[in-house]
Amino acid sequence: MWPALVVAEEPNRDSDAACAAQGGEEPLRRPRLAELAVDGLVEHRVGSSRVRVDPEAIQIEEVAEGSRPFRALYEHWERHQWSPFATDFSTDAATFAALDETTRAGLVLVFAHRFHAEFNVAALLAPFLLAAPDYEVQLLLATQVADEHRHIESVLRVYSDVFGVDGGIEAVKALADAQLDPVAATLYQALDGVVRALEASRDEDSFLKAVVAYHLIGEGSIGRANQNFVADQFDRIGSFPGLREAQRLAVRDEVRHIGIGVSYARRRLTRDGAYARALIDEIVEGFEALGHNLVEHATPDVVDRFVGAYGAAPATLWAEVLRQLHLRLRSIGINDVGDDSGATLRRLDPTL
Question: What is the pTM of this model?
Answer without folding.
Answer: 0.80
